[in-house]
Structure formats: C-alpha cells, structure tokens
C-alpha cells in the first residue's frame, strides 16, 4: 500500500514534496499541523505541517468543522435576532404579549403577515440547527480542495486563504467544486488591472519606453511590438535605443529595424535623446529600448530618470520576467516605480512552471498589465493582456 507521510514548514512545500515523489495524481489523505494547533491556523501560516498522501486512494481532505460551525452559529444568531425583532413587532402591534387580535402594524403590515414571517424565520433557524454533518463536511471538502489547488498553483497561502474565504456561502453550500472554482477565478479577474494594447492614432506621435532589470527581454519585446504595428497595423513606427552598455545590443535592435524597415536612432546622453525624439516626430509610434538596470543601483536608476525626463514618454512599461521569484519581482516593481512606470509587461511566461506568484506582484504594484510574451519569435509570441487569460494562467493553465 503506497501511503507516505511528508513534513514541511508550510502546506505549499509539503504539497510540492507530495507531487515530486508520488506524482500529480496523488491524493492527500490527511493533513496535520505539527504544533498541534487547529488546521485553520496553518492555512494562514504556521511552523510545520504533516501531510499523508497516497496514489492508491482518492479521499479528499477536510477542513475542521469548527470554522464552518462558527459561521453557522453566526447565521443562526442573526436569524434568532431577526425572529426576536419580528416577534417584538407582533407584540407591539397587538399591544400586549401573546395577543392574537387581528391588528395592523404601524408599518402597514397585518399581524397575520408578520406571524407568517415569524414562522418562516423560525423554520429557517431550525434548519440551520439541524444541518447534517455530511453536508457541512462536503462543503468543507470543496473549499479545502480549492485552497489546495491555489497553493499548488504557487499562489501565496495568505492570498489563497482570502480567496477561499471570499467564496459566497451559497456557492460553498452547493458542494459544486466547479462553481467554487469559477467564483475564485472571478475574484482573481476583478483584482487584476488591465491597460491593454498600445493605442496609436493617425496624425499623432506616441512615445513608449520599455524599462526593467537586465535579462528580462526588453529588446526582443520592442522588436515584437514594432513588427506588429509596422507589418500588421501598417503604422509609421520608429525605434530609439539607449542600450549602449550591453555588448551587441545596438546591433541586435538594428537588425530587427532593417528587417521590418523602420528607422532607428541611438541615444547615449540626454542631449542625444532630445535630438532623436525631435528627428522622429513624424512617426505615429516611437518605441524606446533602454539598458537593463539593477533595481538596487540608485545611480543607474537616476541615469534612467534623466533619460526619461528628456524623452518625456507617453507611457513607461516596466518589463518583468515571470521566471523570477516573487521577492525579486516585488522589489523591482517597487524600485522602478520612482522612475515613473505606468504599466507592467510580463515576459517569459512559457519558461515559468507556475504563475500564481504573479497575483501578489500585480496586486502590490498597483499598475495595469499591458502585454504578455511567451516565446522568442518575432513578431509572434506576444499578446495584449486580459484579466481572463491572466487568471487562467494563475490557476494552472498553459500559456
């Protein structure tokens, strides 16, 4: 019988160990907090977790009933309070406790109507008290399964817990996992800001700068955008590069410029930047490629601020790679915010095994998402971001 126990600091690490050793089809039979506290505590973070799993059984784990029974008690108390209120209305309308005379309440409702409401609410309270344990268990199983899938998708445990807690009671009570998952997906979609593709208008010049750390794919992304707007949208496109630090960076972008037949200017100083922008003013879209900057290097960031100050771009897209850790992504978003970023652009989605960590980055950065890239092919492998597609990726979908 293939049953194994795994111990880790948190649920995410434990589930990863289960998946690595037993495979993606393994079922979690039991979860136990090593500190002895209730299960709800380690959902929000605890010192240690023990997970028992098997490839031969398919028994879904359950949340402890205390959390749900507490919610049920809260609903019961609310109903009891409402019953008491209606009963008080009845007594007030009758003038004395327990009087059954046919009177009209001050609000215009008849005593019979109030009595019917009272009986209905009493019946509802009794149904809450008599809710079968099996139904509560099924509801808890569905919620825990949803929580587990979120954690396995690399969504931080705290955010996963909040998403599960936000599932409406009616959806949770249905015991329908697909309905619960749909509600969670909708919550994720509503939390994601989207700016969409670049809007280029005839007769106007729009300057868009791409900035970010080293190695995130800025130059290739500039080439993709330029090719799409030049070849597919038939727009007048031009390029400016200030990436004179990386070996062969200028030659790489110039090769792309020659292939798609667009002009390119090189600017290594603020003065050259002013001249380049002025020279290309008759183009509808000017895309600016910048050198990768270390988010911790204040001098380099100040140089970037000076360049952007001279260029006065209409949009500044911070390019981040999906394969970086949550900590590095959050740090880069925070540090580059001082430069004047207006949107995020995510690259290398095809190289990331999971995308759930991007949810906390997008939430904390408070910037809309413009584009996503999932390969190196020019002009392909880039698409305008949509909340639906991002949520799909975060929940384990393929790019």
* Amino-to-carboxy terminus distance: 37 Å
Globular, elongated, flat, extended or rod-shaped: what is the shape? elongated
Structural class: alpha/beta
Write down how many β-strands occur, each being a DSSP E stretch of 2 or more residues. 11
CATH architecture name of the largest domain: 3-Layer(aba) Sandwich
CATH superfamily of the largest domain: P-loop containing nucleotide triphosphate hydrolases
Q: Tell me about the biggest sheet?
A: 8 strands, mixed
**Residue fraction in strands:** 5-15%
H/E series: EHEHEHHHHHHEHEHEHEHEHEHEEH
Structure report:
The chain is α/β, with parallel strands linked by helices. It folds into four domains: 1-59, no CATH class; 65-129; 133-191; 206-394, 3-Layer(aba) Sandwich (Rossmann fold), CATH 3.40.50. Helices cover 49% and strands 15% of the residues. It contains 15 helices and eleven strands. An eight-stranded mixed sheet has the order 6-5-7-4-8-9-10-11, sandwiched between helices. Strands 1-3-2 form a three-stranded antiparallel sheet, covered by helices on one side. The protein is elongated and about 75 Å long.
